[in-house]
Amino acid sequence: MEHKVPMTSLQVSPNPLETQSTIDYSLQQAATVTVKVYNTKGDCVKIWSPRQQSAGSYQLTWNGTDHNGNRLPKGIYVVSLHAVIILLRPQRFSKPLRSLTFVFFA
Question: Is residue 82 assigned to a domain?
Answer without folding.
Answer: yes
